[in-house]
Design goal:
- This protein has 227 residues and is α/β, with parallel strands linked by helices.
- It has a domain of 157 residues: Rossmann fold (3-Layer(aba) Sandwich), CATH 3.40.50.
- It contains 8 helices and 7 strands, in the order H-H-H-E-H-E-H-E-H-E-H-E-H-E-E.
- A 7-stranded mixed sheet has the order 3-2-1-4-5-7-6, sandwiched between helices.
- Helix 1 runs parallel beside helix 3 and helix 2 packs antiparallel against helix 4.
- It is globular and about 50 Å long.
- The termini are far apart.
């Protein structure tokens, strides 16, 4: 494991940054690099106190978790308003917040309060308050209060595609897109979605390759009403 006590080696970071830049098609700024490193340190430290992302976080943070977030950024428009369902430890939400620029913004939805407090701490430490905000509540509650408010809703580990689509639907503007990071079982998941009532509320799913060679994809579903 190419890791120091609280972070990763320069070689590990160089490889991660190189892959990020290759996927983005542009260089990361010095500030973005510093923020990603600070975020990883806070995440690893806090993960020792309570579970934010699971046991694989220490070994896979740079080679998987951070890189999983990068392909989502290609879907951001110049003024994208984005909600992240079940933000957990901040991946992909906080990684994307580090990459975006106002008026783009990320709303991180996390109902577990100790995780929500961690997200708020990172936003405060990194000075991301102009582009990121935490909602410490269930997505169903936010959907009732923020109807049709978002251009994009993203998720990484919220359960089935149908369940994520149910949570995303009230939050999305007509024509807005739900973007779900899925693994190798995405064909089974999309087939289940097609049989569910919520599937009729969206246009047919589009499958986009995600980063890496593990078969992961981004499932894009546009809310019905606008093409």
């Amino acid at each position: 494991m190419d890791q120091t006590e609280w972070g990763f080696s320069q070689q590990a970071w160089a490889a991660c940054f190189g892959q990020m830049e290759s996927c983005l098609g542009q260089a990361l700024s010095a500030v973005q690099r510093d923020h990603l490193q600070q975020f990883s340190q806070l995440l690893l430290q806090t993960n020792r106190q309570f579970n934010l992302m699971g046991p694989s976080v220490a070994t896979d943070l740079l080679t998987r978790h951070f890189l999983d977030a990068i392909p989502l950024f290609a879907f951001f428009s110049g003024q994208a308003q984005v909600a992240d369902l079940g933000s957990g430890g901040g991946v992909p939400g906080l990684v994307l917040a580090i990459l975006c620029q106002p008026p783009q913004s990320l709303h991180l939805i996390e109902s577990i309060h100790k995780k929500a407090r961690f997200l708020e701490r990172v936003i405060d430490v990194l000075g991301l308050g102009d582009r990121a905000r935490v909602f410490a509540q269930r997505a169903e509650q936010l959907g009732a209060a923020q109807k049709n408010a978002y251009d994009l809703v993203i998720s990484r580990a919220v359960g089935s595609l149908a369940y994520g689509a149910e949570l995303a639907y009230p939050l999305l503007r007509p024509g807005g897109a739900y973007l779900a990071l899925k693994g190798r079982n995405h064909k089974e998941d999309t087939a289940q979605l097609a049989r569910s009532p919520v599937g009729r509320l969206f246009q047919p799913p589009q499958i986009h390759p995600a980063w890496g060679e593990d078969g992961g994809v981004i499932v894009r579903m546009n809310k019905a009403g606008v093409s």
